[in-house]
Amino acid sequence: MTEQDFEYEFDDEYSRAEERHARKEKPKFGVLYEDERIIVFDKGSGISSIPERYIKGISLKEIAEEKHGRLWTVHRIDKDTSGVIVYARDAEAHKSLNDQFEHRQTKKLYAAVLEGELPGDEVPVDIPIAQDTQRPGMMRPTARGKESVTIFRVRERFTGFTYAEAEPVTGRMHQIRVHAKAIGFPLLIDPLYGNRREFLLSSIKRKFKDYGRDEKPLIDRLTLHAERLTITHPGTGETMTFEAPLPKEFKALLTQLRKVVAKKPLPG
């Protein structure tokens, strides 16, 4: 599925300033695995998987190609989602991996923090989604959309929140985010489909004190992390699983939820 193209005009000086700022602020990423056929990264939140239309040189693919040579795009994860992403290093590997994703022969697992307490330990969601014609760049549930299936599994419940894993069986744009909202449990932080852009510790801790300073958000990024990806290596045929550890801001959020709003066992 491809995103709709848009036409904008930018002042040249403004565009150059934006590009300089973007290059200066480009987020970090690390290599999880590489060989002559594939390379796997742990992408940080805030960096695009592929080149953006009007700001060049700051996507993960572009930056990585400066060091690792030409790469072929296989799949994408949202700009504000962190975690595992794989690129091919030759055309044959690209075709093999594309076929695997197209025929659902890969397995993806995401870590997610949701608003609300998800009922049931496993919640399958089978809701077709399509592009939202009223809001360009967004998706929406609709019976006329493409088949979309996500399985949510509870890892921990807190008072008012859920730490879950999400397994997208299909691979539609924004699928996990749309499905989470559709069942009434949006991502804790999601500017497009959720209720918050940031999460403050004071929102759950009554006696929070910051001694007169402006309170900094505990987390202000999408609470979605591509934690694990399993593929068949295009050269060896070996089944390989790659994992990206939870980012520090994700860990900090979970630490505070465990301290402040942990679910207490019922008496008796």
Provide structural commentary.
The chain has 5 helices and 12 strands. It has 268 residues and is an alpha+beta fold. Helices cover 21% and strands 27% of the residues. The chain is globular, with a radius of gyration of 20 Å. The protein has helices at 12-24, 60-68, 91-102, 175-182, 248-260, and strands spanning 29-34, 38-43, 72-73, 82-88, 107-115, 122-126, 129-131, 139-141, 149-158, 161-168, 224-232, 239-243. The strands form 2 sheets. Strands 1, 2, 3, 4, 5, 6, 9, 10, 11 and 12 form a 10-stranded mixed beta sheet that branches. A two-stranded antiparallel sheet has the order 7-8. The protein has one domain (28-260): 2-Layer Sandwich (Pseudouridine synthase), CATH 3.30.2350. A hairpin with a 2-residue loop joins strand 9 and strand 10 (161-168).
